[in-house]
Specification:
The protein is of the alpha/beta class and 217 residues long. It has a single domain (11-211), classed as 3-Layer(aba) Sandwich (Rossmann fold), CATH 3.40.50. It is 54% helix and 13% strand. It has 9 helices and 5 strands, in the order αβαβααβααβααβα. The chain has helices at residues 3-6, 22-35, 50-60, 69-93, 104-114, 119-129, 145-154, 166-182, 196-210; strands at residues 10-16, 40-44, 97-101, 137-142, 187-191. A 5-stranded parallel sheet has the order 2-3-1-4-5, with helices on both faces. Helix 4 (69-93) packs parallel to helix 6 (119-129). The radius of gyration is 17 Å and the shape is globular. It starts with a helix and ends in a 7-residue tail after the last helix. Bound molecules: thymidine-5'-diphosphate. Residues 18, 23, 45-46, 60, 76, 101-102, 106-107, 110-111, 159, 161 line the site of thymidine-5'-diphosphate.
């Protein structure tokens, strides 16, 4: 048996703009993988551990300009380190599948590309905090901004990130697409337009193609 066939767990991140539907799709994938007998840890950022959830409250509450982009990135990476140490790495060590709603690419997209923070600052923090623990697969849910804002609006998104406006979201979208181009082995773009059921099929097909060992008996 090869090393690849012996693998049981995997680390998957879901990324994309506000209203891209990734959270719904993540729940579906988690259910499907549980149905195959995997232990699935479905988690999110900012958050995903007790300490990181406390930091999440600090980050998401208040005015849009409450934190500078650098301060915000430092808070994101502080939360991310706790999330990795307390939730993600222990679960992967048990052979679980970890699926996270956002990870380090979000900091590159939102604090750097959209927020104006120097990309190299984020790269430095990522190296320190994430090191070699990149996801095995990152699914980037891509959707035109207008549609994303409409969907996010209809679910009553009140948070400060959703108040940052269209230009901000456009820059983040472009950044996610650039990340996918730069790291094609880790990343895959999912067209998030259309029905939930159609997007779920695209998502499942991509996970099967990229991580086939999760589907072998
Ligand atoms: P959340 O309500 O979970 O939104 P979403 O469903 O879009 O993920 O809030 C998370 C917000 O935090 C979201 O607007 C993106 C933002 N964010 C960053 O700006 N940088 C980051 O590194 C992360 C993880 C999230």
């Amino acid at each position: 048996m090869t090393k690849e066939q012996m693998r049981t767990g995997a680390f998957i991140s879901f990324e994309g703009g506000d209203g891209s539907g990734k959270t719904t799709q993540m729940a579906r994938l988690a259910d499907a993988l549980r149905g195959l007998g995997h232990e699935v840890v479905a988690t999110r950022e900012p958050g995903g551990s007790a300490g990181a959830e406390l930091i999440r409250k600090l980050i998401l509450e208040g005015d849009a300009d409450r934190w500078s982009p650098l301060t915000e990135a430092l808070l994101m990476f502080a939360a991310r380190r706790d999330h990795l140490e307390r939730t993600i790495l222990p679960a992967l060590a048990r052979g679980a599948v970890v699926i996270t709603d956002r990870f380090a690419d979000s900091t590159l997209a939102f604090q750097a590309a959209a927020g104006g923070l120097d990309e190299s600052a984020v790269a430095t923090l990522k190296e320190l905090v994430v090191g070699a623990h990149d996801p095995d697969l990152t699914l980037i849910f891509d959707l035109p901004i207008d549609e994303g804002l409409r969907r996010a609006g209809s679910r009553g998104g009140e948070q400060r990130f959703e108040s940052k406006g269209r230009a901000f979201q456009e820059k983040a979208r472009a950044a996610f697409l650039t990340i996918a181009e730069r790291e094609p082995e880790r990343c895959a773009i999912i067209d998030a337009r259309g029905d939930v059921a159609d997007v779920a099929v695209r998502t499942m097909e991509m996970v099967k193609r990229r991580l086939p060992f999760l589907f072998s008996a």
